[in-house]
């Protein structure tokens, strides 16, 4: 099984995540799509570490996980605060700022 | 399958290599992070009444002490410009306090001092910040917040500042990514803290957060592909890999493209600017000042470092793309700025145009390009800081009066504020005797010297278009009749006065006597 397949899978996951960010309307789902993109990157990092025969990429994946966890804390706090005032987490409803 | 496991002992022996840390060189960053942690403790343990004064003192003192530490290091007997955190046996530090980093650290500290003064001021209407606690059920969610003593913003600002300082000094992409998040996450939160107009403030926080997380995912995928290409995420290793020919170039181009998208987003350049007007308008104005001045410095510091250290050898392949990006950015900023009716949005589009001008200097890839871009960052930061400081002063019953029509005839009501704002707008437009002119001169002459004359022609055209909307505001302030129920100009408190004075004085000083700052900016380049 060549590592290339894992890279392709990672690219596919990243694309699904990116498309999800662009087409979904609920802020929580958009945010989950961003997390999917980050995890796709983790898969790439680990695969490249395997190809290069070293551990650097695997350690980087841990860094990414920690950063992603911090991002969840901040992101959910922001989404919660807008949900409390608007009673909606849809990114289409938040439209006071335009042009 | 077991190769990695078997080889791991060798890997472990070679990889665990305790780095040498030049503590004096990185002392400004250490001071800022230690103070940020202290600030969190103050928030947790001090009674509410005493927090505000302690937090203000602590954060302003931090910036001063970090500045002093920087000054002491630069003037010390040590060999300046090569310090940082170095792994034994490697020439280039992992975390480099080289001359560009030192200059930009100084710039960041000075700008954040001004921004913290604006954040700390609450003489006008009790300050701009509210507790993030939502209003009680039945209360008006849009307006009502008791004028509490909001202090969470100070630790957030210090962490953001620390992240910015690391971001522009990191010599490997992973440190850069972590620093990018350390600077972004507090900024997302700070955007949502406004006391008045909470809905648009929260909306700006959500937009900034979702788009920011999206772009950092791009940065990260770029990092992963470049790791696959070069086998390392250190900038010098990537540069060494681009010199060879046996590696798959697809990985290089895709990785570079994704990485640069992440960086351009942070610097609010060109087609990646969509968040800028909304966030600048929705965020509390002192936070907007902090973002506009400091984030730009950090992001361009990182762009300069990445382009120079990692991708100089492959510059002929990507330069055309960044030409196009710079042109798009300048034109979007200048043309869409014409159509704006909100003061903060107008300055936001102006910042997009300025980001394009800065990119022109950044892709020159010469010593003059580097020093010119850094000088421009210094000049632009202070001008925009003072401009947002003025915007906090013009108010009506609903808070800040940011609609352009409300500024009509301001000169008749408050000549001093009008003349100061007019001066700052002229500086943004790049009129001689202001820092904006010297900055543009430095950047454009470096670009022409590097054979980018067509780009400079476009840049001058964009400056001319942008000058129109700056001048329109001046005409509006001086030659229109003030409306009957127009806004009042608040008497600024000591902090805001100090911040605006600082910005105006630096803008004037750099316009009249630019030589000393240009000399500092051109002392030396990146260590490679």
TrEMBL record, chain A:
Catalytic EC class: translocase
Keywords: Cell membrane, Membrane, NAD, Quinone, Translocase, Transmembrane, Transmembrane helix, Transport
Oligomeric form and interacting partners: NDH-1 is composed of 14 different subunits. Subunits NuoA, H, J, K, L, M, N constitute the membrane sector of the complex.
Function of the protein: NDH-1 shuttles electrons from NADH, via FMN and iron-sulfur (Fe-S) centers, to quinones in the respiratory chain. The immediate electron acceptor for the enzyme in this species is believed to be a menaquinone. Couples the redox reaction to proton translocation (for every two electrons transferred, four hydrogen ions are translocated across the cytoplasmic membrane), and thus conserves the redox energy in a proton gradient.
Main subcellular localisation: membrane
EC identifiers of the protein: 7.1.1.-
Subcellular location: Cell membrane; Membrane
Membrane topology classification: Multi-pass membrane protein
Catalysed transformations (reactions): a quinone + NADH + 5 H(+)(in) = a quinol + NAD(+) + 4 H(+)(out)
Similarity section: Belongs to the complex I subunit 4L family.
Signal peptide: none
Cited PANTHER family: NADH DEHYDROGENASE SUBUNIT 4L-RELATED, NADH-UBIQUINONE OXIDOREDUCTASE SUBUNIT ND4L
Gene label: nuoK
Pfam families: Oxidored_q2 (PF00420)
Membrane-spanning ranges: 6-23, 28-49, 61-83
Protein origin, superkingdom: Bacteria
UniProt keyword annotation of Chloroplast present: no
Protein name stated in the entry: NADH-quinone oxidoreductase subunit K
TrEMBL record, chain B:
Keyword Cell cycle attached: no
InterPro entries: NADH-Q_OxRdtase_suN/2, ND/Mrp_TM
Superkingdom in the source lineage: Bacteria
Principal location class: membrane
Keywords linked to the UniProt accession: Cell membrane, Membrane, NAD, Quinone, Translocase, Transmembrane, Transmembrane helix, Transport
EC number: 7.1.1.-
Transmembrane segments: 25-46, 53-74, 102-120, 153-170, 176-194, 206-230, 250-275, 287-308, 320-339, 346-365, 377-394, 415-435, 455-479, 491-518
Protein's membrane topology: Multi-pass membrane protein
Top EC category: translocase
Keyword Repeat: no
Compartments where located: Cell membrane; Endomembrane system; Membrane
Cited PANTHER family: NADH DEHYDROGENASE
Family according to the record: Belongs to the complex I subunit 2 family.
Subunit structure: NDH-1 is composed of 14 different subunits. Subunits NuoA, H, J, K, L, M, N constitute the membrane sector of the complex.
Role: NDH-1 shuttles electrons from NADH, via FMN and iron-sulfur (Fe-S) centers, to quinones in the respiratory chain. The immediate electron acceptor for the enzyme in this species is believed to be a menaquinone. Couples the redox reaction to proton translocation (for every two electrons transferred, four hydrogen ions are translocated across the cytoplasmic membrane), and thus conserves the redox energy in a proton gradient.
Protein name: NADH-quinone oxidoreductase subunit N
Species whose genome carries this gene: Actinoalloteichus caeruleus DSM 43889
Upper taxonomic lineage: Bacteria, Bacillati, Actinomycetota, Actinomycetes, Pseudonocardiales
């Amino acid at each position: 099984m060549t590592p290339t397949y894992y890279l392709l899978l990672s690219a596919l996951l990243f694309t699904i995540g990116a498309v999800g960010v662009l087409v979904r309307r609920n802020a929580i789902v958009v945010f989950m799509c961003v997390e999917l993109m980050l995890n796709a990157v983790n898969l790439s990092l680990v695969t490249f570490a395997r190809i290069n025969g070293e551990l650097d990429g695997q350690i980087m994946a841990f860094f990414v996980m920690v950063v992603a966890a911090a991002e969840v804390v901040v992101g959910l706090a922001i989404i919660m605060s807008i949900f409390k005032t608007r009673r909606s987490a849809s990114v289409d409803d938040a439209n006071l700022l335009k042009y | 399958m077991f190769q990695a496991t078997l080889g791991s002992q060798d890997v472990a022996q070679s990889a665990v290599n305790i780095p040498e840390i030049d503590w004096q060189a990185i002392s400004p960053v250490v001071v800022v992070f230690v103070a940020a942690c202290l600030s969190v403790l103050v928030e947790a343990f001090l009674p509410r009444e005493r927090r505000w004064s302690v937090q203000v003192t602590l954060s302003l003192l931090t910036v001063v002490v970090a500045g002093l530490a920087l000054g002491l290091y630069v003037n010390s007997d040590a060999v300046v410009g090569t310090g940082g955190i170095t792994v034994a046996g490697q020439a280039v530090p992992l975390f480099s306090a080289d001359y560009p980093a030192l200059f930009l650290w100084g710039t960041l500290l000075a700008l954040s001092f001004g921004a913290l003064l604006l954040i700390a001021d609450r003489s006008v209407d009790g300050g701009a910040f509210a507790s993030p606690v939502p209003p009680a059920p039945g209360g008006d969610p849009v307006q009502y917040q008791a004028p509490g003593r909001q202090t969470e913003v100070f630790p957030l600002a210090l962490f953001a500042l620390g992240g910015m300082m690391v971001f522009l000094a990191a010599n490997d992409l992973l440190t850069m990514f972590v620093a990018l998040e350390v600077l972004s996450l507090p900024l997302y939160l700070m955007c949502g803290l406004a006391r008045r107009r909470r809905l648009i403030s929260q909306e700006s926080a959500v937009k900034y957060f979702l788009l920011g997380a999206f772009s950092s995912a791009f940065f990260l995928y770029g990092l992963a592909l470049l790791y696959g290409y070069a086998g390392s995420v250190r900038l010098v290793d990537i540069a060494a890999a681009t010199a060879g020919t046996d590696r798959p170039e697809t990985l290089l181009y895709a990785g570079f493209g994704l990485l640069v998208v992440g960086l351009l987003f942070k610097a609010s350049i060109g087609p990646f600017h969509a968040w800028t007007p909304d966030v600048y308008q929705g965020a509390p104005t002192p936070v907007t000042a902090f973002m506009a001045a400091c984030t730009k410095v950090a992001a361009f510091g990182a762009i300069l470092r990445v382009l120079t250290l990692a991708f100089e050898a492959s510059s002929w392949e990507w330069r055309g793309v960044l030409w196009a990006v710079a042109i798009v950015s300048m034109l979007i900023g200048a043309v869409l700025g014409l159509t704006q009716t909100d003061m903060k949005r107008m300055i936001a589009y102006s910042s997009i145009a300025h980001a394009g001008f800065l990119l022109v200097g950044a892709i020159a890839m010469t010593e003059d390009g580097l020093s010119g871009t850094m000088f421009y960052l210094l000049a632009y930061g202070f001008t925009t800081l003072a401009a947002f400081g003025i915007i906090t002063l013009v108010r009506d019953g609903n808070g800040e009066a940011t609609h352009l029509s409300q500024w009509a005839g301001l000169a008749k009501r408050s000549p001093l504020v009008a003349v100061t704002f007019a001066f700052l707008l002229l500086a943004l437009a790049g009129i001689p005797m202001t820092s904006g002119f010297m900055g543009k001169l430095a950047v454009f002459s470096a670009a022409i010297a590097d054979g980018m004359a067509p780009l400079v022609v476009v840049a001058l055209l964009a400056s001319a278009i942008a000058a129109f909307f700056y001048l329109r505001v001046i005409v509006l302030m001086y030659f229109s009749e003030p409306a009957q129920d127009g806004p009042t100009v608040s008497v600024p408190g000591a902090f805001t006065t100090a911040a605006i004075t600082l910005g105006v004085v630096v803008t004037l000083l750099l316009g009249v006597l630019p030589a000393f700052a240009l000399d500092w900016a051109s002392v030396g380049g990146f260590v490679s």
